[in-house]
Amino acid sequence: MQRPGVDGPRRPSIDPSSTAVERATAGISLEVLYGFGSGKNLRDAVLFGDIAGQYLAQAVGRQLAFRHLLGEEVSFAAESCDVDAITACAASCSRSFLAVCQVCRPSRSQVSIYELGPVASNRPVQTLQELNGRDGPVGRITSVAFSSASRASGVPEDEASRLAVASMGYHAQIIVLDWRLNEIISRFVLQEELSRIDFNPLDSDMMSGSSLNSFDIFLMRDLPLAEDGEKEQLESKEMFKLQQLEELEEFAAVFTDHAWLAPANGRLALASEEGAIFIVGSGLGIEDAENRAQHLDMDPVPYFVCRIAAPFGHTVSDQQVFGIRPFINGFVVAGASSQVAVWRLEQDENEGDENPVDIFAIPKYEH
Description:
InterPro entries: CFA-57 (IPR052993), WD40/YVTN_repeat-like_dom_sf (IPR015943), WD40_repeat_dom_sf (IPR036322)
Strand order of the largest sheet: 1-2-26-25-24-23
Strand content: 35-45%
Low-confidence stretches: 1-11, 15-23
Organism: Symbiodinium necroappetens
Oligomer: single chain
Helix content: under 10%
Number of helices: 3
Mean pLDDT: 83
Structural class: mainly beta
Largest sheet: 6 strands, mixed
Protein name: Wdr65 protein
């Protein structure tokens, strides 16, 4: 079990030896229970369709299939005949809703929202069709995410009430909507398409987005009310990028995925094509989110936490990380050549209610 080292005063790094990895994983076996094909370029093509993990929702060409893992029954969503392909999918944190992004004829993008769980239906409860931007129709949607926080800038709101989509093409942009009301909350014009977007699980007014060449944290804040004679805004909030991290620019990484860590503490894990994992802070932690309403004039400042240099061990160093997903106090890393690595946050014996965790301390992860 290897503790993290530090590769510089500003760039801590965790670098496990192959011996430590072999010792930590001795006696562990992985059994494949189910295997499903999916579109190569479709992010999250297979998702659990309920909180119990008994159903899978899977994109199959232009259709969405619901598969029961125990009984092996398969049903399909009632799609419109205009649908050409599914381009992105996402489930809400509670597994109550599923968003399916589609390309329809003629050259139109839409989002269908399905209800999951005990009241699941193969027909959407909402279809968002009029996704026009300021300069024309929204292009092909590459990523989608539900909000999961119960507040936005200190104001209470329902979990999963917001939906964000990122599109590609000449008018590439992020659009955040109240999907139940089909109202646009905010938008941001992009220079390149994003492969992953997500909401801060502590505050729905903060989002993250990554592409091969960039990682950014976005913040939304209320727009001033239009005065008499001024053109009315289509959105209620403006969206802007927060300060970028110099350390990530120094590493010149190519990003393949990212995820907010659990339990929610305002930190994220970034996966790179070079094989390293980066842990960064959004600048909006638990206390910041709780007191956000009193500090709206101060923008959060993202910060660098640490770097895991070889998540699969030195024997497979420089291996591209294809995806990263969190679990409580850890995350799972998937490699492009079928490697899987599990990282868990080490628990200090002195941690507890009387000895709270130092949020500025470098976290110690074990492999």
